[in-house]
Request: fold
Amino acid sequence: MSTEAHNNTADHHEDHGHHHHKDTFITKYIFSIDHKMISKQYLLTGLFMGIIGIAMSILFRMQLAWPDKQFTVYEIFLGKWGAEGIMDPNVYLALVTIHGTIMVFFVLTAGLSGTFSNLLIPLQIGARDMASGFLNMISYWLFFLSSIIMLMSLFVEAGPAAAGWTIYPPLSALPQAMPGSGAGMTLWLVSMAIFIASSLLGSLNYIVTVINLRTKGMSMTRLPLTIWAFFVTAIIGVVSFPVLFSAALMLIMDRSFGTSFFLSDIYIAGEVLHNQGGSPVLFEHLFWFLGHPEVYIVILPALGITSEIIATNSRKPIFGYRAMVASILAIAFLSTIVWGHHMFVSGMNPFLGSVFTFTTLLIAIPSAVKAFNYITTLWKGNLQFNPAMLFSIGLVSTFISGGLTGIILGDSALDINVHDTYFVVAHFHLVMGISALYGLFAGVYHWFPKMFGRMMNKNLGYVHFWVTVIGAYGIFFPMHFIGMAGLPRRYYTNTAFPYFDDLANINVVITIFAIITAAVQLVFLYNFISSIFYGKKAPQNPWKSNTLEWTTPVKHLHGNWPGAIPHVYRWSYDYSKLNKEGDDYVIAGQDFVPQNVPLQEGEEELNH
Amino acid sequence: MTVFLVLAVLVLFAVAIWQMNKIFQLSKVGKQDNSQIANDKDNNFQGKLMVWFMVFFYVFLIYGFWEWSDVLLPDAASEHGKDIDQLMLISMAIIMLVLVITQFLLHYFAFKYRGRQGQRAVFFADNDKLEFIWTIIPVIVLAGLIIYGLFTWTDIMNVSEDDDPLIIELYAKQFTWEARYAGEDNILGEANVRFIEGVNTIGVDASDPDAMDDIATRELHLPVGRKVLFKMRSQDVLHSAYMPHFRAQMNTVPGMITQFAFTPSITTEEMRKDPEVIEKVENINALRNEKNVELEALGEETLLPYEFDYLLLCNKICGASHYNMQMKIIVETQEEFDAWLAEQKTMEQTLNQ
Reply:
């Protein structure tokens, strides 16, 4: 059935590729339905949100390092909440909350998955565009709208949402509990509801495109791992995002229409509320049913991207392609049945804690397989250290260091004492925050030539990489210690009572690394922007890669290929494959065989 | 509004620049340029940096353990805490071993196989045996950890009434803790936020006879060596009762009663004599003395020397003063505890005042 399907669309698109319709400025750059343009829109919006998210983290890191110093930057950026250079405790919580929200959803979900799913799915599977370009456009503009609303919420009089990115009620439901739970939280919920709609439209489109629009010969087992990762990510998104939507909807009802889904027996601001019978634990279940898969929504695309980049730059096939696909599938499946490990001490039945410990630690197995396979891919390779490759290796490093501490947090007995401490903050920033950011950077460096037709400056890329890796470990490695010292997260200051006074020095170290690391991102931004305009012209296939996107011309055109869509004859990892005699590569003098090259005489196809 | 106008102008400006760039791009007939692709020189240099990074990584690791270990929590002051610490130690040892080996392989391979013109990579796509080995090793190790962890967890969380635990209610509200001892009958009286009025700050049901001998306090005293069962309530938002020294934590949830039990094993007095605690207190006091010099110079009041006490901290974001929602815990001998409790007012005395 599916062969028929893509034959039909291929025919349909074949004539489409030839005729050129006039694009106006608006249809080309703004309401574009071309996946390459939409991907750039996602990237630029994501980077813009990223700048805001990271800047916020610097502000609250300064507060943590030097709680009794006054800084005029607070006054500049926070206005009345930073009066006389003293940060207001409520705005501290707001910064933490919005930093988390922006980084998790707007940068690492939309910015990473949105950018590269859009760019690569049609190009790597050999399709003219997404299954529905129009839905794709709507998806981006809903994302844009939700970004705008999220940013607007920063300017609300009582302040933006401040109940933590997990917005647990009753704190997030009651404006009496904190000022941020008023209009700020309403806007947060509206923004997220729109974001979820955007994400669903995008995900459905990705799934349909991968299933139906693969070119002739592109069987599922010949798909590059990037596509596998995006495909499975989209499925997790479709399964779990609606649950967050239901939680948000119920929270909206509790806040505005007097229902009691999450509220019961509350006495606040001198009066008893009428709410009876609800449970905040229900919200936690609903939230983490998305919340945990969400971290895989963030990290899987990054892992897909690095699989591709590491193979290409090692000039070797990715080791254990089938195992990599199986790991992605296993991680995706397990990701939906582990959410309770965020709730070991929430008051839920301890027996459930045992079950979730079991499923959670199982996830370590496919993750370990992935890490070992990456390392083996490097073994006996001919490594080309382009900036994208460096960031990919960096990702493997942080994925391992951050993932290992997950063994502690996933173990319910051990979680009791490190739950909600800085140990958790260190863990998830390394394993999903920093790793996914490295994936984003790797992707940008690698596919920049495809997106903008120019090369990024490699030396600036090297500077960016080395300062960032050292800085990121400099921030998050010491953080494990203050977590194990028992310091709870989301404390405005650690000096209100003397017990944590001796952590002050470590906090200063962390903040200094954070400032340096944030500053070096400016090098990236400069490199990114200036390369768009003045970068060296890109060759068609700068990294000598096998995947189909490098068979398209450098100059973008609607429909991707000027002529017929290429057919595929092999998987995408035929790097350094030798001919039958074993004296030269399959194609003499060329260590890679693009997917659209038919099998050579006497060549055997790998059976995977 | 002006902010949005400014933003709009900026966005339009950016779009204009982008457009202009497109025009330039179209007008240029450029030729390809490979200068931004890694060459042998880059590969060599970056490969060596990988080794240097590995050295940095290990040195930083050792420095961290050397320099920052003294901030860590002292030995567990509860019976089950020892099991948690033991499990933690084993898990940490495994983690560090895996970390050191994998990071070495990753960075060493990166260095060893750095690209050179003419070097041929090995076409090595699959090896079932290898993959089997590194699937089965994590399976075995994790199975061990899971079983060990689950036994520990079940021991901690299953509280039997047969142990005759001392029952204490922990009551959380923005931004303080209160405690209620179950009194002579060791049964907590009914309570609900709807009974909150005047001195009855935790909503005890005055019509429940079990409640009359309950004792509400602002400080948490625990007798050493006896199992304590905490019943937890919150009156407004989620809080979390975190007692790091006892390796104990449980959220307090409005609308339901949560619980956690442990047996304190070291009194506050004994803990103050623990060498690790002495060192930590000395460090903190050294820092406070430094600050006192500054304060004195400004003519302000100086800080008192710090003395160690167990703490109950709020560990779930609960509002503006979340960072300072704490209560002192005092672990003492049964006699001291009894004497202290006898001085406290029962609910009956409080309500009928």
